[in-house]
Every structure is written in C-alpha cells, then in structure tokens.
Specification:
Blueprint: E1 3-6, E2 17-20, E3 30-39, H1 42-49, E4 65-74, E5 84-88, E6 97-100, E7 105-107, H2 114-117, H3 121-134, E8 142-145, H4 151-162, E9 166-171, H5 174-182, E10 187-190, H6 196-203, E11 209-214, H7 218-224, E12 228-236, H8 248-253, E13 257-260, H9 263-269, H10 271-286, E14 294-299, H11 303-311, E15 318-322
Parallel strand pairs: 8-9, 8-11, 9-10, 11-12, 12-13, 14-15
Antiparallel strand pairs: 1-2, 3-4, 3-6, 3-15, 4-5, 5-7
Length: about 325
C-alpha cells in the first residue's frame, strides 16, 4: 500500500507519522502520479506546527511540490501515462502517490532528475516573482541576497545574475558561500565576520543595494534598511529569523519600498502570472541556466530528519525525500 507522512496533531516534525493509505479511484479529469521525490520547504515545517498562514484541517500531509510519473489517467486532456511531471500542491507531497489534475502538472525538464524537479518551482518560482514581478530588478543594479545558502536564496542568486545584476550574497558559512559563488554571486559576506551593512556599503562605495532579497527577517531586515540605495526595493520573502520591524524614517529618507512576496497567492489571484513564470523557468532549465542545488536526499521514512535539516539550517539549497 502507498505511504504518506500524516500530521494528526500540530507540533514539531517528530509529531508526524508515516502511515499507509488506500488508493482512491480517479474521477474524470484526474490523474494518478507515482511520486519519486518530494521537495521540502520551510512552510512545510510551519504548517505542521500550525504557524503558517495556510492551516489545513487535520489530518493532512505536508509538502508543496513533488515529481514523478503519471501511472493512471481518467479522461484528463494533455497528459498521458508515462509522462514525467512536477506536481504543484498546497500540501500533500510527502507520499508515494498523489491524485492531481492537469493544471497542477508541469513537464519535468529533461535536464533534471526527480529530486531536482521536486525542488524547483517553489524556490525558483518565488525568486522569479520576487525579482521580476515585484522588485523589477534591472541589469546593472546591485542585488543583496540574504540566506544565500538556502533554496530560495540560491535561486535568487542564479536569477539575479542572469538578469545582469551585481549580486552580493550573505550566508553563515564558507561552504554555503562557495555554492553561492558557483551560482553567480559576485561578492560574498559571512554574517559572523563583518556586519553585512558595513560590507555592503564598502562593496558599493557607500551607495548601498538597489534590491534586497530577504527570506530571513528579524534583525537582518532591520539592518538592511541601513545599507540601501535611493529608491531601493526590499523584498520580504519570509521570516526564518523572526519578524522584522520597519524603521519608517529610514525608508522615507531613501525613497524605498517594502514589498511582500507571495508567489503562490499571486498566481491564484492572477493565473496569467504563473503561466509566464513557468514558461520562463522551464525554458531556462532546459537551457541549463538554472538548477536546484539538492544538498540532501533522504528516504521518505526520514521525513523528520529531513525537516530538521531546514530548521537547523544545515541544508545548502534544497532537501528532497526520495521514494523507492
């Protein structure tokens, strides 16, 4: 029988359980996907703890993205048994099989394996939406990427460099910064060696960053306001380091904007945005211009250990659960 990671009570990853379930029959318009890999995202951890903005009713299975093979089709157009696909979900990916509709599926790039496909669209889609739709990053501007060793941070480094920006990457270790450099970062800052706001001013000859990509929050956001250029855009991606407080006088003095980034919600409200985004990302993937860095691949039964890698910031890029 297929297995799924199930959340029956909110709390830490250790509260989750691996359970078997009976496959349900398809209704017309649905497909069954044998999941080969599921990507982990920090919202999975928050959702299981009841701390995310989306709060599914209990019980539920975490996981926002997966990749696998279509094994059954019931009157669904544009797909066929044997297709290798990425599956987009709001939750439900940590399992051996999933029922989906064609609108949830994206063809797996031929350059990717299943783990890379399962860790692609959430991170790179968020970075795309942040830098292009919200931040309107231009060639020649300075992009400051916080948490550049994480999945969305590395995606922002990659895409920012592709767009012609000068990319400053911050991270907590030399190992993470080395990966960021390999993905295109021009300048590297370790948080514990120099206050990043001083380093950014030094690197930019006192001008500051034009766009700040911030999945960390907390003091990182507050210090970012002290190293921005005139007209800067601060992109709020997440809050792994806590909720940041805005110094409105600093924003006013620099004519700066603070922009919230919710890539999934933006597409639900305007589906056309998602079509453009996915087309660009898959074309870049096929051309070898973007690729997730999957630092850890663990079996499905090690879901708690995998989620702890995100909590403890041990991952460099992405973590995937692999099945079979």
């Amino acid at each position: 029988m297929p297995r799924a990671v199930v959340c029956r009570e909110l709390g830490p990853p250790e509260n989750l359980r691996l359970e078997t379930f009976a496959s349900r029959p398809l209704v017309p318009g649905q497909v069954r996907v044998a999941i080969r890999a599921a990507g982990l995202n920090f919202p999975d951890v928050l959702m299981a703890a009841g701390e995310y903005q989306l709060k599914p009713p209990l019980p539920f299975t975490p996981g926002m993205e997966a990749a696998g093979d279509i094994v059954e089709v019931n009157a669904a157009e544009g797909v066929a048994v044997g297709d290798r696909v990425i599956v987009k979900m709001r939750h439900g990916a940590y399992c051996d099989e999933a029922v989906a509709t064609p609108s949830q599926l994206v063809k797996l790039p031929s350059t990717f394996d299943y783990a890379e496909g399962a860790t692609f669209l959430a991170g790179h889609g968020t970075a795309y939406h942040a830098l292009i739709d919200r931040g309107q990053l231009k060639a020649g501007e300075v992009l400051l990427v916080h948490g550049a060793g994480g999945g969305v941070g590395l995606a922002a480094v990659e895409i920012g460099k592709m767009l012609g920006a000068t990319v400053i990457a911050t991270a907590s270790s030399d190992e993470k910064l080395a990966i960021a450099k390999a993905r295109g970062a021009d300048h590297l800052i370790r948080y514990d060696r120099e206050p990043f706001r001083d380093a950014v001013k030094r690197i930019t000859d006192g001008e500051g960053a034009d766009v700040v990509f911030d999945p960390v929050g907390g003091e990182v956001f507050e210090n970012s306001m002290r190293c921005i250029n005139w007209g800067a855009r601060l992109l709020i991606i997440g809050f792994t380091g806590g909720i940041g407080l805005a110094k409105t006088n600093l924003l006013m003095i620099k004519g700066a904007s603070v922009l919230g980034v919710r890539a999934g919600e933006a597409v639900r409200r305007n589906p056309a945005l998602g079509e453009v985004r996915i087309k660009a990302l898959t074309e870049w993937a096929e051309a070898g211009k973007v690729r997730p860095n999957v630092s850890h691949r663990l079996p499905l039964e090690d879901y708690a250990k995998a989620m702890r890698l995100l909590i403890d910031r041990k991952a460099i890029g992405r973590v995937a659960l692999v099945m079979g």
